[in-house]
Write a sequence for this structure.
């Protein structure tokens, strides 16, 4: 299953959520931000190379600690040469190799986000507990709806435990919303680009990311069941006598 982690505003922690969800789901995470990537990278081929046709997505995946990562390149020339319309050619082989693919989408609502949302089976929306964050969350939800990509969970990141904002976001998005409180353990893990589970397993953030992962896996079962029923209905209509 391909999961897009998105959010209209930059700086809300999409990459942190993506990395930690990849750890919880045992997924490969793809850094889909062509111009300002955040996830760790090595010396091998990267997403720029894959989108330009110079490398296969399977060969570009590298193990970083406990997580498989397909990193993005760091050069402006590489970003300009990359053809993001080919993102489905990237995630398709990864989806066949791995049970889960997590797409760490860039900020904003541009075509680069749209291509990645369109290629995903479902999405997780990440936002911060601010008015601007909620407004951008609503815009991202609208884009996902236009592309018919269901939002299966929302993450209210860097919160201070305000239940009112969480409830408002959950009503606005129409998906289970999990708060991740502002936590020094998360900040320390982020500085070394490691999942919190590996650096501070007793942190409340670990429980929060685990809850998001459980929500996603439950939604995956529901999505598969709906598709199965839809396929069965379509087959029935094709074979119905005139």
């Amino acid at each position: 299953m391909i999961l897009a982690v998105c959010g209209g505003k930059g700086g809300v922690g999409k990459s942190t959520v993506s990395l930690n969800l990849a750890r919880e789901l045992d997924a490969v995470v793809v850094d889909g931000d062509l111009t300002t990537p955040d996830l760790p990278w090595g010396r091998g081929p990267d997403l720029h190379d894959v989108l330009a046709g110079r490398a296969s997505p399977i060969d570009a995946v590298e193990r970083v600690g406990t997580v498989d990562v397909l990193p993005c390149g760091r050069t402006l020339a590489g970003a300009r040469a990359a053809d993001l319309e080919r993102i489905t050619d990237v995630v398709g082989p990864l989806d066949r190799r791995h049970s889960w693919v997590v797409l760490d989408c860039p900020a904003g609502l541009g075509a680069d986000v749209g291509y990645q949302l369109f290629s995903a089976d479902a999405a997780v929306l990440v936002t911060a507990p601010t008015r601007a964050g909620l407004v951008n969350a609503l815009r991202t939800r609208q884009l996902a709806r236009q592309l018919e990509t269901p939002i299966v969970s929302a993450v209210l990141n860097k919160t201070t435990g305000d239940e009112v904002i969480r409830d408002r976001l959950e009503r606005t998005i129409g998906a289970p919303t999990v708060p991740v409180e502002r936590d020094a353990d998360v900040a320390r893990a982020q500085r070394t680009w490691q999942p919190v589970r590996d650096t501070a397993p007793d942190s409340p953030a670990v429980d929060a990311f685990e809850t998001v992962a459980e929500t996603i896996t439950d939604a995956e079962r529901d999505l598969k069941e709906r598709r199965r029923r839809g396929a069965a209905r379509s087959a029935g209509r094709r074979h119905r006598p005139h």
About this structure: Residues 10 and 107 are 5 Å apart (CA to CA).
